């Protein structure tokens, strides 16, 4: 228990998390922070050298699945994301989505998710100079110090579980860190069923984060109340600025802030708008209602979505950060936005899992027993 208390103390202050360095040639953080230029874009590049972006959603695995050949370290024009562009955009880590096209369910969804997971690991292994697998905030920092982009697995779709907690545990063992709750019978418009709540408890016990983007308000409300770990919205902007089914109304943003969850605003024209300024408006809105500790970035590149002007691919993050600098965002809030908040929720999920594993054995619940 003393170890858990030490870990909790270490995670209490977001500002004291591991200090990331995106690439080996970057200056020390102190030098970066004292040498920010007056031009917003110069400021953005200098700032991001010490606070690289944690991108909350990338559709790259499915996009790569359809290419006969690719080299992400050399550069790949057929996709939005490769190592040169991530270096240019100061991307230090990103979550690779295991989501599947609509129409796959049951055993087919489980099998296709495993194939996606295998593909991710194969791609990372084939690009050792640019990419490295990571499963925690500490491993993200280690990868960045070595000059690699940290790749995390998830989110996967709820269909990937096949309504089996055993499959959830197997996916976690293989590296899954985020699961989207939408699309399952146990997380519907009516909210979480008894089995759905058991899935959430087991996710907390394992350290798998719950992604609530695209779920019903009833599911959101119950998950916010029941989850012992922070929840995510991996692709949600502000409904008040742009009505969209996956965007969040103001009262949900307020509830998310109270629960210390994380809203990752997508850089897509459909959800955020056609310009960098539109995306910045959403970030302003989420920060105002949920708090600076509860807003992050979701590139949503290689997902088939159209992107705002000047945010066409993974190299473009400096343009967005420059816009926020011009709006007067303090460096402390920008550091939380780019990577600090993702670090916080990962550390919190790991701490919650350690504590839960001391109290609770793996669940053997079946959906037929609880929802039948």
TrEMBL record:
Source taxon at top rank: Bacteria
InterPro entries reported in the protein's UniProt record: Metal_Hydrolase, Pept_M19
GO MF entries: metallodipeptidase activity
Signal peptide boundaries: none
A Gene Ontology BP annotation from the UniProt entry: proteolysis
Protein name according to UniProt: Dipeptidase
Species annotation: Streptomyces albiflavescens
